[in-house]
Structure formats: structure tokens, C-alpha cells
Amino acid sequence: MRPLFRRYILLLLVVFLLVSAGCITSRPSSQSTAASGNATPVATPRAGDATATVSPAPTFSDHGSLNVLRGEPFTLTGTVPDRTMTEVQVWLLNGSVSTSLVPALQDGSFSVTLDAGVTSALSRNFSSAIIAQFPSPPNHFAVTLDPATGQITGSSVIPSRILTEVNDKQYYPTTQEDFLAQAIDSPGTNNSCIITFLNGVDATLDIDPISQGPPGIMTVSGNTSLPAGTSLSIDVSTVNTHPTPKNYDFSHEIASGSAAVTAGTEGINRYSGTVNTSLLNSGRYMVYISPENQALQADAMGYADVIAPISTQAGPGNYINWSALALPTLATNETMAPVLLVGEWTIVPPGASAQNNEVPYGSIIDCAPDGVCRVYDENGVQYLAVYDSNEAHMMGVPNGAMIDSAAGGNVTIISLNGSVILTKIDEYPARS
Predict the structure, then answer these.
(1) β-strands 143-145, 152-154 pairing
(2) What does the pLDDT look like over 199-242, one tens digit per residue?
(3) Inside any domain, residue 284
(4) Which residue in 319, 332, 333 sits closest to 427, CA to CA?
(5) Does one domain contain both 118 and 156?
(6) Which of 132, 253, 410, 421 is the 20 to 30 A CA-CA neighbour of 33?
(7) CB neighbour list of residue 15: distance below 8 Å, 6 or more residues apart
(8) Helix %, strand %, coil % for the chain, to 5?
(9) Same domain flag for 297 and 327
(10) pLDDT tens for each residue of 250-308
(11) Is 124 buried (19+), middle (13-18) or exposed (0-12) by CB count in 10 A?
């Protein structure tokens, strides 16, 4: 996963999870070819062995994509879905194919450790895949690797065309795992799996927490084991990914900057750099950092909230034909402090709201000239205030809903089964 445009693509795709063939997966971008073969790279601790850990090991269930430091042992943990399982089959796809049986402890946990030799061999051109395969009782694995031939074989219920694709030596690991997942989860196998992608890196790199702030100059800093003098690129992009026209202006959603590594102590160096965020809209942003030298592979991602100050001298805003709107009297609560939306607006039935972007049927949203969107119930009582952010510019509607953007001027009315379920009023002028 190391093409020249890797930073931008990863920045946009890292937020997506792909559920494929019954296995929980998170697919990063990757490009290269893989060759099948047989190896035994996985070292597995025996039940009862003592292991010293400084911090909890990452897990299959919590991480879809992980950075792995080359030349250092790497441990990944998980939990079986059924305590009757006493073994897990772990697959490693890294240009070759290998498997290992890992014991599941009485509490259902299991762990797998890649030794330093294996991590040193992680590709510089594509992401690897590690798969935990859960059997059907009693420990029946419907898909296995034949050590004599290096071929992946399966029970009679698995379509032969799927096994043919699994054994295709030209596929990238991130494509090969998709077919392997389909084989494992084929109807009748009663097997399942969890997939995690591994990205080999040459150094550690992290990002210090970034304080919420207005558009302006954002400082990005952190620790790294990259050598002093290394130049770093910083990319800032909205988490609110959305379809765009061909010539879309991203200047209010994407910004970039640079940083340099300075010498530290005990192998822990520091970096610090800035990004000009003055053009960015309010919203939550991903912050991604990596070396400018493509020969050094390391990266880190964090988040930052950019919030423009509320205008105290707002103008009249966009034209609204209020007389054309059938609205109750809106009772504004001036003391209600605005917050950021956690995602795009979503219209849900009454009582189904679980987070602040989920508004119940009948709600009225008024994005006022001061840059605050105030949300009212069907009776006109305000129950929420949010910043007019990138997230507030997107709307998810129920299936079958009708959208009318012609009535009232700068007003969107959404109806379902003949009833108005949302009225959105856009007084706040969009940035050009």
C-alpha cells in the first residue's frame, strides 16, 4: 500500500469498514502481486506460558488495519465466538500463504505472535492479511492448507470456483483474503473468521492530541523513531467523505503542511509542524502524517476539530420565504451551547435517536446566519444546537422519502408517506 498517492487515498478510505463473506474486514488500498507457497512463520505461545507485555496487544476484533514495526515481534490477540472451540487456525497472506493452529484458552482468548523474521519480511509494496479462522465444533476447519502441495483445499460444500480463485498466485493479499473469506464462510461450513491487514513500517510515529481550535494555524507534533532531519508531510482532510462533482473545490475540506524530525533522547525523537487551516469549514478532520521520502515507511493518524467562532454581527443571511413555510413558532434557547455533529444528519423515527446527528421525524433545522444550526421539535421547541460544519451539509433520509428543495427559498422539505418528516432552513451562506 505504498503508491505515490497513498497518503491521500488512505486518508479517505481509512474510515470505511468492508464486511465481506461473513468475515469482519477493513480493506486498505494496496497494489502488488502475491505468490502462493507454504511457510510456517507464526510462533504461538502455549497455554500457561508467561509473557511480559508493556501495553495490551492489539486485537483482531478492534483493529482492521495495523502498522507493524519490521524486525520486532508482533502479537495480536482475539476471542473465539464459541467457548467450545479449543483451537483457531491463523492464516498469514504475505506474498506466500502460511497457517498455524493456535490454542484458545478457557476464557476464550487466543494470541498469535509474528517473530522478528516474519515482520522483517513484510512487503514494502502491499499490505499483508492475517486471518483468524473459527471452526465448526468440534474444531472442524472447512478450509485448510495442504503442506505438501501448497494448495488451499476445502470441504465439498465449498464451490470449486472459489477455491480456484483462492489459489490464484497473481492476486494481492487484500484480494486473495476476500476469496479465502468466501470459502471459509460458505453455506454449510459453519466456519467464520476475522481479518486484519498488516502494514509493515520502518519506524514508530505517533501524533500528540490536537486541541480543538478555530481555522488558522494548526500545530501537529509527536514522537518518532525516524532519524533526525527526516521531512514529514501532514495531510488534513474532513472525515465527512462524500460524492463530489468532477471539478470540486476541496480547499474548504483539505489542507496540508510539513514537519521535520529533531533529535531526542534514548532513541525517541520529536517532530513538530504546522498546517494552514484558515480556509477549512468547521468540522472534524483526520490528520495523517508520513515521511516525504517514500523509502522510509511510517505513518500515523489522529483527529482534530476545527470550529469557526460564532458570528456576533451576522448579516441577514440567505433569502428565506418564511410565509411559505408551515412552521410553528420557533422557541429559541439562546443559552444552549452548540456542539459538533458526530456525522451527517440522519432522520429517524421518534425514540430511535442514539446520537446527536439522528433527528426524529418532524424536526426543524434552522442553520442561522451566525453559523449555528438550531434544531426544534415538531412543536417548535429547541432541543439541540450544533455548529454549521461539513457534517451538517449532508443528509441521510429514509427509503421512499421525497425531497423538495423548491419551496420557501433555501429550504429543503423532506416528506415520507405524505407527511413532512424534516424541514431544513439554510440561512447560513455557504463558503465559496
Answers:
(1) antiparallel
(2) 999 999 999 999 999 999 999 999 999 999 999 999 999 998 88
(3) yes
(4) 319
(5) yes
(6) 132
(7) 239, 241, 286
(8) 10, 40, 55
(9) no
(10) 999 999 999 999 999 888 999 999 999 999 999 999 999 999 998 999 999 999 999 99
(11) middle
Question: Percent of the chain beyond pLDDT 70?
Answer: 85
81 burial via Cβ count (<10 Å: 0-12, 13-18, 19+) = exposed
Per-residue pLDDT tens digits for 355-378? 999 999 999 999 999 999 999 999
Beta strand spans in 206-307 (E):
217-224, 231-238, 254-265, 268-276, 283-291, 300-306
Domain hosting 298: range is 217-306
User: What is d(CA 214, CA 138) in angstroms, rounded to the nearest whole number?
Assistant: 58
Q: Whose grid coordinates read 473545490?
A: 249
Judge whether 208 lies within some domain: no
What pLDDT, on a 0 to 100 scale, did the predictor assign at position 266?
85
Distance in angstroms (rounded) separating the CA atoms of residues 171 and 134: 24
Among 90-99, 236-245, 330-339, the minimum mean pLDDT is found in: 236-245
How close are the terminal C-alpha atoms of the chain, in Å? 35
Choose among 94, 93, 113, 111: nearest CA to 103: 111
Contact 116, 72 (CB under 8 A): yes
Q: How confident is the model at residue 24 (pLDDT cuts 50, 70, 90)?
A: low
Please state the domain count of the chain: 3
Q: 75 and 131 share a domain? A: yes
CATH number assigned to the domain comprising residue 248: 2.60.40
Whether residues 288 and 349 share a domain: the answer is: no
pTM: 0.81
Q: Which residue has the cell 429559541?
A: 332
Residue type, 393: H
